[in-house]
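Quick start: what a row looks like.
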Amino acid sequence: MKFKSFILLLNIAIISIILTACINSQQQYEFPLEREEVEKVLSDINFGWYIEDFKYYDDNTISIVTLKNNDNTLGIHTLAKDNGKSMSVTWWLSREYTDKQFNDFYMKETPEIFNLVGKLYGNKKLEIGLKEFNRYYEKGYGKFEGGLFWTKRIGEYHVRMDVKPTSSSEDKRNRIGLLLITNMYEDYLNVRFENMRNSAKYNSIELWDTTVSEIKNYEPIDYDNFYGKHYIIKGHLENINEIKEIPDSLKYTHSSLLIPNKDKYLKAKIVDDTGELNVFLETTSLNDNELLMEREHHVVLLYYKNNPFYVVKFSALKKYKEGR
């Protein structure tokens, strides 16, 4: 009897290994992608879009392909570096779409886009993991006016999905989508950090390098005309937990500095040499151990009913530059 049980377990183990091998045995393409490779995958999966344009940039380290169907545009940007690779996928939906067509796109066509992404990456796990977005969208459909933000860690890859209306249109439906997949996420955060600093300087936005003790002492003169204050705090995050019920401060504060789907915020403490501070943390694919590392955190101060609350937008692993 024991021998039969052993044989059964052995067979199960062998089947599991075979299935895992099948999942990971998809054809791997070198980044940046070549036109012929994209054409092959489009044909293999019978993807209903065609290539409108294909170009290389930066000494052929980047390729950008533009796909079209009858109504919409899809852009795929692939990048290769010595330490990894990235893909960003952007779509623009027709302003002529009805509400039903919008919903059909996110429920029926994005799974096909995720299938395309998985094939181009040669990674079945990516395709499976991305489809969690569809379940999240379906659960909250009708609540995402003004956009939504979703993120996930799938193996070594960090995934970000940002869906929003066009800023120049009165149509507030989510016509633009940006999907980023990268295993160079720390590089991405560092670039985002530098872009944020440069943008603040260009747009004359005050960005204060400060400490926890100093940020607690700030008080605006005019609450009614206070739209947020930006800080950089060097420290780490701990006690990171999901929010079971969205607090009123997040729920009823309307600010472009907050992501629209506020159920995706976490709560945490930011800690530096001068103390600790309760904060809300924008959903992130970094894990708790990574957030325990010393980082530079972009922190936004907002007020609700004259009471302050703090939001960590993102955190980068950078060497802190004294004297800024």
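That is the whole record. DSSP finds nine helices and 13 strands in the chain. The chain has two domains: 27-183, 188-316.
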